[in-house]
């Protein structure tokens, strides 16, 4: 059977540490930036006998807000379960998670259907060295949101785009920083290939994906590996595989457990959650608390006339879009000025540390729109504003960068060009209208790029007859 008959299917499981002041079931500080090991710990998150967990209300609210943002169905009733398995980073010998009654079911993001979102506690962090392993329990018990997609993704790029959009959404909501390099967001991909006669093949779960590029490369590799095995007639095993960034390939870790292996049962030390009895957890209240979502932001930018690539870039970073939105507010949302601001912001400020304020940046755009600065002058003023700050009018005056609008000065510049370029003048008068742009460029050069181009054009046309 040829490779063209095979259909790859991908489902994602994404964990994100929530931004709360304390851990999921105790009052220990939730601080992902703490570098000292084993300082944010207590008898509860270390699972000492006789300790009792208490549910973090804010963590529940954050997951429900995420569900509202994704258009999911929010649970009226929920509960926590014990997920039993032994590993050194699980001090209790089980993880408090959710199984039959997640907080959110359904929803969509970036065109991908979502199965569920539930809440659990994170594990400790293990560091493996030669002949020893060290465990840091600072992370043990941090609130961890898990989102599971439907198996409806069929290529690596779509999977990567979904993960990026989820990270942006969580940052927009203030629910999580979701930094992959810090382990605040972890992505696992379930990948299978099947013939057209079957919907799903035997899946493998790929772990240790710590960047979006790794997600896409690991999925692409796994699709190719499984396709070749399928074509050779080999039987694939349901297994967990890791991703080797150096070798750019997946490798076997263990055979995959089923849900029965975890021996789920309701957590006896925690109360049931009757969410419909809590006013702040009502869908209407949560929806009202939502900020403008990334998809809504891109739609707003589209209405302002900003082109597709630019609005995607502006909306892709919370701080970046906040700065730009403050600029557009100063410009009263005028489409022409907003598009101009987007062009300068992306071409001249992208990626640069900036000390300029939104109001001074908007003032610069207004000066350019009013022909008080040339394009070159505006860029020069902006370069100073980015590194040193300041007001554009003051900088332009101090550096002599303002646009020249004095008619006498511009007429003198035009007359000089006509004397130096008699051939071009003759060509224009003979009907070669394209020569006008050449002469205008020369006149702009004479004024050091500071001449008002529209006024120069007017004077040129008049003097050329």
Task: Describe the structure concisely.
The chain has helices spanning 57-69, 156-173, 212-231, 283-288, 294-303, 308-315, 318-330, 335-349, 358-369, 375-388, 392-399, 407-420, 422-429, 435-446, 453-464, and strands at residues 6-17, 73-74, 77-78, 81-84, 94-97, 104-105, 108-109, 112-121, 125-129, 132-136, 143-149, 185-195, 204-209, 239-244, 249-255, 265-266, 273-274. It has 465 residues and is α+β, with helices and mostly antiparallel strands. The radius of gyration is 30 Å and the shape is elongated.
Provide the descriptors you would attach to this structure in a database record:
465 residues, alpha+beta, 17 strands, Arc Repressor Mutant, subunit A, 10-stranded mixed β-sheet, elongated
Structural write-up:
The termini are far apart. This protein is of the alpha+beta class. The chain has three domains: 3-284, no CATH class; 294-399; 407-464, Orthogonal Bundle (Arc Repressor Mutant, subunit A), CATH 1.10.10. 39% of the residues lie in helices and 19% in strands. α9 packs antiparallel against α10, α12 (407-420) packs across α15 (453-464) and α14 (435-446) crosses α15. It contains 15 helices and 17 strands. Strands 1, 2, 6, 7, 8, 11, 12, 13, 14 and 15 form a ten-stranded mixed β-sheet that branches. A three-stranded antiparallel β-sheet has the order 5-4-16, with no helix packed on it. It has a two-stranded antiparallel sheet with strand order 3-17.
């Amino acid at each position: 059977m040829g490779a063209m008959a095979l259909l790859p299917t991908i489902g994602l499981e994404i964990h994100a540490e929530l931004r709360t002041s304390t851990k999921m079931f105790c009052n220990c500080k939730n601080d992902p930036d703490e570098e000292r090991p084993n300082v944010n710990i207590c008898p509860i998150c270390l699972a000492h006998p006789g300790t009792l967990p208490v549910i973090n209300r804010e963590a529940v609210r954050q997951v429900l807000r995420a569900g509202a943002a994704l258009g999911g169905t929010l649970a009226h009733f929920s509960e926590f379960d014990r997920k039993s398995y032994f590993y050194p980073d699980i001090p209790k010998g089980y993880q408090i998670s959710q199984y039959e009654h997640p907080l959110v079911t359904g929803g969509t993001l970036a065109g991908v259907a979502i199965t569920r979102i539930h809440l659990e506690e994170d594990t400790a962090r293990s560091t493996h060295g030669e002949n020893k392993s060290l465990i840091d329990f600072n992370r043990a018990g941090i609130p961890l949101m898990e989102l599971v997609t439907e198996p409806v993704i069929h290529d690596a790029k779509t999977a990567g785009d979904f993960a990026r959009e989820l990270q942006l959404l969580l940052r927009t909501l203030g629910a999580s920083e979701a930094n992959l390099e810090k382990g605040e967001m972890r992505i696992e991909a379930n990948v299978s290939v099947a013939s057209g006669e079957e919907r799903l093949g035997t899946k493998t779960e790929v772990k240790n994906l710590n960047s979006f590029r790794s997600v896409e490369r690991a999925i692409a590799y796994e699709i190719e590996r499984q396709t070749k095995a399928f074509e050779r007639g080999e039987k694939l095993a349901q297994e967990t595989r890791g991703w080797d960034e150096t070798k750019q390939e997946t490798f076997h870790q263990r055979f995959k457990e089923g849900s029965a292996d975890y021996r789920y049962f309701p957590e006896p030390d925690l109360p049931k959650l009757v969410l419909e009895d809590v006013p702040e957890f009502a869908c209407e209240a949560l929806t009202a608390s939502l900020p403008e979502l990334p998809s809504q932001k891109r739609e707003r930018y589209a209405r302002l006339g900003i082109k597709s690539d630019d609005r995607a870039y502006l909306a892709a970073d919370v701080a970046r879009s906040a700065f730009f939105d403050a600029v557009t507010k100063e410009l009263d949302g005028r489409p022409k000025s907003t598009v101009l601001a987007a062009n300068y912001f992306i071409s001249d400020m992208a990626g640069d540390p900036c000390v300029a304020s939104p109001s001074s940046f908007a003032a610069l755009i207004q000066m350019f729109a009013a022909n008080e600065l040339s394009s070159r002058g505006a860029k020069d003023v902006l370069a100073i504003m980015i590194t040193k700050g300041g007001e554009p009018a003051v900088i332009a005056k101090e550096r002599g960068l303002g646009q020249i609008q004095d008619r006498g000065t511009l007429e003198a510049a035009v007359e000089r060009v006509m004397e130096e370029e008699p051939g071009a003048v003759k060509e224009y008068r003979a009907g070669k209208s394209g020569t006008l742009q050449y002469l205008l460029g020369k006149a702009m050069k004479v004024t050091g790029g500071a001449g008002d181009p529209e006024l120069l054009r007017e004077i040129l046309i008049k003097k050329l007859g």
